[in-house]
Amino acid sequence: MRKVALVLASVGLAVACGSSGSDNGTTPSGDDGGASSGSAGSSGSSGSSGSSGSSGSSGSSGSSGFDASPSDGATTGAYPIEHVIVIVKENHTFDNYFGTFPGAEGTTTCTKHDGTTMPCGHAPDKTGSTDPCHAHSCAVTDYNAGAMNGWDLAGGSAEKSDLPYGQYLEADIPNYWSYARKFTLGDHFFANVLGPSFPGHLVVLAGQSGWTYGNPNTDVTHPYWGCDQAASTRVPVQNQTTCKEDSVFPCFKIPTVPDILPATVSWKFYGTNFYVLPEIWSMFNAVDGIRNDPNKWSHIVKADEFDTDVDNGTLPNVVWLVDQDFADEHPTIGGVCQGENWTVQKINKIMQDTKHDYWKKTAILFTMDDFGGWYDHVKPPRQYGCDAQNPYGLGFRLPLIVISPYAKPAYVFKDVSEQASIPKFIGKVFGATKTLSDLDPAAQDGQANDLMGAFDFKQLPLPPLVLQQRNCP
User: Can the peptide bond before residue 400 be classed as cis, meaning omega within 30 degrees of 0?
Assistant: First the structure.
């Protein structure tokens, strides 16, 4: 939400931006931090380069696990999951966070448009005033017709700085790496859009973004993206009939996950308000059927209430947990250490709960909203939109960490998946009878991987992993 950050900074605020596959993952071994050497033009298909590892579930323990009786599931008894928590942070690719993770398809070598290579470099905890371009135009340039080497071209994300080639190492984000080592890390999880925050956040809620590929223009009197903005506000969308850009008001009549959930399944969006503003920042603001329905809009609450709901035993079944303040990990806003600490505190809250045993029945999905301009070497395996040469999506890989008693332990999930897989997973866990694609063909969840290959519901449930927050640089 870079434009909002700049606008609010002008009044003294600094805020944040911008079908199930086969089981073919790997189990990392050792702690050497070595990366596999996938080539710059890799197709991103499962089973691509990286250590071969185990092809089955890791640490499975047979009949000691879940027995699908009605009392175990949230609604249908099909799965031992009663709570799905989706944590969305800001602006990092897979290579940027996990490019050196053992067993994952990473790289330490970055490729430029002329074929020359260089070490990817080390990214700083805070990027100062540098915010790599992550607009749709820059993403298409970076993609470079699938060569994945256009970052240094004119209009690319690294045209003015080599910062986008930088990577964070295990020492920089040790707690994220601890989750990845203990539970499941997805290394072929892609953004649905070649673009920035607005569409990325929408896809996690709706499986689509109304064909938007940019952020709305913003002013300080209307700092929220969506239906609350000034009537003159516009956001670019790709017209699927003419293949041209249309500009529309950012308030969309599209279905979202709550529209497909059974009536007995509860939900909330826990967000932040830039510290002082009277409204929570949520991309549900851009959904007419949520923002303009007072009952549904009452499900949008401050992130502080997450802790209270855990304490009181009132945590809903479906949770989106999104920080848009200093802890969002967006370049120029706050450091990745500060953001990691925020995430750890929230996850610890679930893991340390003994009164309601939330850990035993929860799946946490941690990911990003968009690529943030950072380099990633794996070509998105699917192109869609009306122009195959300048695709709407898929976008670049994002980190995905699956944290649950039933996540496959120490496992690299290599099946191709995408942001729309999150609505698909939620619907499957809670017994939805329709997908969002059934309600609107623009939604991508109908064809998306359902993430079930990252879980083993027969294994002995994993214990919690309570971590310490760090002193940040």
Answer: no
Q: Give me the residue label for tokens 């499941």.
A: 184
For residue 134, give the nearest of 113, 168, 159, 98 by alpha carbon.
159
CA-CA distance, 230 to 334, in Å (whole number)?
28
Closest C-alpha to 88, from 332, 423, 351, 323: 323
Contact between 360 and 463 under an 8 Å Cβ cutoff? The reply is no
pTM: 0.88
| Dihedral over alpha carbons 409, 414, 417, 423 (to 10 degrees) | -10
41 vs 243, residue with greater confidence: 243
Q: Which tens digits make up the pLDDT trace of 286-320?
A: 999 999 999 999 999 999 999 999 999 999 999 99
What is the distance of C-alpha 382 from the center of its chain?
18
What is 432-468 written as a DSSP string?
A: -SS-HHHH-TT--TTTS--SGGGB-TTSPPPPP----
SS3 393: strand
Name the one residue in this structure whose structure tokens are 């931090």: 33
How do residues 374-427 score in pLDDT, each as one tens digit?
Answer: 999 999 999 999 988 889 999 999 999 999 999 999 999 999 999 999 999 999
As a whole number of Å, the CA-based R_g of the chain is 20
Question: Which is it for the CA torsion 282, 385, 141, 185, positive or negative?
Answer: positive
Q: CB-hemisphere CA count at 13 Å for 283?
A: 32
71 DSSP assignment:
T
Going 367 to 371 to 374 to 378, the CA torsion angle's sign is positive
Among 161, 185, 209, smallest CA distance to 94 is for 185
For residues 225 and 1, the answer to whether their CB atoms sit within 8 Å is yes
